[in-house]
Amino acid sequence: MELITSPVLWIVLTLSLGIPALFIVSVRYVVVRLAGRFGGSLPVAAPDASAIPLPRFASRAQAIRILLLAAVMGMGVGIILLKYVYGIGAISNLSDQFPWGVWIGIDVMSGIALAAGGFVIAGTVHIFGIKRFEPLIRPAILTAFLGYALEVAGLMADLGRPYNLWQPMVHWRPYSMMWVVGMCVASLLTIYIIQELLPAVLEKLSEFEVVADRLPIEMVYNLLKKTTIIVVFLSVVISMLHQSSLGSLWVLVPGKLSAIWYSLYLPLFFLISAVVAGLTMVIVESYLSSKAFDHGLEIDLMADLGKMAAIILSVYLVARGMDMTVKGVWPMVFEPTLQAATFWPEMILGVVAPIILFSVKSWRYNPKILFRGAVLALVFGIVLNRLNVSLFGILPYTGYVYTPSWMEIMVTISLHCFGVVAFVLAIKYLPIFPHEDEHGAH
Amino acid sequence: MSSDNNKTKLSRRAFLKNVGAGAAAMVAAHLAGEIQPASADTENGWGILIDLTRCVGCNSCALACKETNNMPDADIEPTKLSSKALTFVEPHEVTTISGDAKKRYVKRQCMHCLNASCASACPVGAMYKSDEGPIVYRAERCMGCRYCQLACPFAIPSFEWDNGITPVISKCWMCHDRLQEGLKPACVEACPTGTLRVGRRDELLAQAHAQIESNPGRYVDHIFGEFEVGGTSMLYLSDTPFEELGFLVDVPLTAPPEQTRKVTNTLPFALTGVMALMAGTAAYTNRTSEKTDKQEDKEQAEAPAATEDNENKNKV
């Protein structure tokens, strides 16, 4: 009875219904408006400017799917809101012994690695000048942007005092890897907004003469266009720093992280595996979107990505092997421990298997096999590796004090649903993925 | 088209110059030592020597700590570190090196490392090493990221898990305010048996070594905290091997921040190298691709270049 009259319950309920609904509607509105800007790619005529498009369901099954998705998103929001009332302890199994759980392991460590496609493809096209990958830049940048936005959203759940998120910009601590990570996220989000969003805003503004006459909009716009290469260059460098710094975070805990994974070269391993994550993530996204939207898959490009992934994975495998030999930790992975049990799938399924699948040419050109290889590399080579470093590798020191609570997992699932919704809406309405018929134009 | 190319070329050159200057400034600042690590080396700060042979487990220190730091339940003896207890006394049934079965009490609290992982970890300097030696926390900067908890080799800092809006990290701060006023930390003042002694760390170390030498057979010939994680301000003397008292005897002997320093010391050079390599590659590949572009342009004989750039330019 007391619960029902509590205003907290009603505020939380309202917000957890309202935020996902607002999110879906506003993302849909933004992409539909943006689609009008690009022109031609929209199946229907460009929408009129004032109407907020409401979702229309094609079938009952689709309606149920979307409502379920919205329910999951709402639960995540609700749980995060509860955290602000009752504390992180109330919704998670985190403790003083085990302060970082699945939110860090999956949302931050793995999520950012999966967002690496942005800098990998941008670097391939703009730095190495391999222009035929240009059609893949948009999906890759979109994934990167969503990945970073979700990391910040995830921090709203994980940080105890998120309103102090601006503090690193004022108090510089270049010797703290956490500071480096924070500054990288802040600058990358800024760069993506300047690079992708500001031109659209300026275009809109230049339509209003009152504003265009008084502000140097055209000059700023042209400046942005001319400095694209600088912005791309910066985003690639900062992304590389960011990926490696996520590994450097763990260099500080030599006594805590299991020697199987602890290494001074963790930053390098994180960077190399992030490149693989970027490549394989583009394969997976292209494959899934080609299935979902029934457009063709650019198998030549995809197979080339697979080949690059195989080469880089081989370098990674040799480097990891050498590192383990130098540390002398091979005996540890033959002991009957949880760490050995999570180490072998990481290396065999996540590194060796994709190398084999990507190396045989006929397999590489088979979309299904290519897709499976990419999924293996992502799930075992990247996500399991990040979990090994951030969770399983820490457990021997802390004792087995941590299993994630259902609410922690729910928050993680919910955050990823937000990302998927934004991604699906974007690729549905915007010319993100190259279509077969469009391909000739590029 | 050609004038466009010239412009991008110009901006690229200017850009490369900027990148070079930025990286050089970074390296120069680095070499000149302008950017200092979060914790200064304060070998000779305050420390506390804890002689475990004298402790009778009266808990006066833990209760005095609660009272001084305005903790709740100031009359209940704490049994573990938490956001409501910065120190507690841990009982152990042990065999001393002279072979007696005895009860020993270990006071636990922050070790105040000389080169502290938590201070080095903190991205905002909320956790920092004070000039007097103690590691102090200032909540107003804290983001609640809990990297200090992860970093601590002794797993000391506690987080307020039940506070929704303003959770803080709590840990012993060696009564930094009292030290500055010339007072002893509350626990030292409350100790009735002389287990706790406050002083300059090197003096305490000298006293401890003298005690070990002048009482042969009474103490284990080891001062916990002299070398552990690069040295701590809290020093323990014991008549029982430390591993039997639940001490983390296998912590690294070098300070963990030294490991991160190895990474951060390489970073400016690695970054400069990567940027130079990438800029070189970009300049080379773009020049070659411009050549092929021109050839294609000739072949296509003024076919309209349907690039996104041009489309957008037309709109503005």
Question: Can you characterise this structure?
Answer:
The complex is a heterodimer of chains A (442) and B (316). Chain A has 442 residues and is an all-alpha fold. Chain A is 72% helix and 0% strand. Chain A is globular, with a radius of gyration of 23 Å. In chain B, the strands form four sheets. Chain B has a three-stranded mixed β-sheet with strand order 8-1-9. Chain B has a two-stranded antiparallel ribbon with strand order 2-3. A two-stranded antiparallel sheet of chain B has the order 4-5. The model of chain B is unreliable at 1-12, 29-41 and 301-316 (pLDDT under 50). The longest helix of chain B has 45 residues, at 256-300. Helices cover 40% and strands 13% of the residues of chain B. Chain B has one domain (34-268): Alpha-Beta Plaits, CATH 3.30.70.20. With 316 residues, chain B is an alpha+beta fold. Chain B contains nine helices and nine strands. In chain B, helix 1 (2-31) runs antiparallel to helix 8. The chains are: A mainly alpha (442), B alpha+beta (316). Chains A and B meet through helix 3, helix 4, helix 6, helix 9 and helix 11 of A and helix 1, helix 3, helix 4, strand 6 and helix 8 of B.
